[in-house]
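In the laboratory, one determines a bound structure by crystallizing the protein with its ligand and collecting diffraction data. In a computational setting the workflow is compressed into a single prediction: the sequence and the ligand go in, and a structural description comes out. We illustrate the idea with FE2/S2 (inorganic) cluster.
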Amino acid sequence: MAAISRRVFLKAGGGVAASVAIGVPALTQAATSSAEGRVNLPYPMNAITKAEKLQVNTPVPFSYPDAASPCVLIKMGTPVPGGVGPERDIVAYSTLCTHMGCPVTYDPGPRLFKCPCHFSIFDPEHVGQMVSGQATENLPGIVLEYNPDDDSVSAVAVEGLIYGRQSNLL
Ligand code: FES
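The predicted complex, in structure-token form:
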């Protein structure tokens, strides 16, 4: 078997790297155009409420993407990551704990979701981050869209897998 010199090996590796690099923009472009084509997404667009009706730190229950998936929407009162609306402070999450699916409840004092079953805690001001407890995943976030024309807040997708499902859309 012929030995491959280091120079030949590196040249070949460079070629592979170049091929991969050439492919990256094409993949990125495909993903972008797919993301822009919201009409092609399988998730429904469900209007939840008007932003003007929301009270700070007061949860609003709803279901998404179907009736078997309880969620809650909260106007946090200050801009938060992923927040929508005029103040960029409206967020929403699945209320099924990612540990074993118990319903979490929102505690407006510390502004956290708490699970009564094994005491996991999630932070709605930091993209549903798991703060402590048995859960290992963040709470799935409900992607919201705000329409300034009619002040509506709508659910348009889910980020993360809703507990107990193999796919968010049944
Ligand atoms: S079901 Fe929530 S911590 Fe176990």
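Residues 97, 99-100, 102, 115, 117-118, 120, 133-135 surround FE2/S2 (inorganic) cluster (CB under 6 Å). Keep in mind that any predicted model is a hypothesis to be tested, not a measurement.
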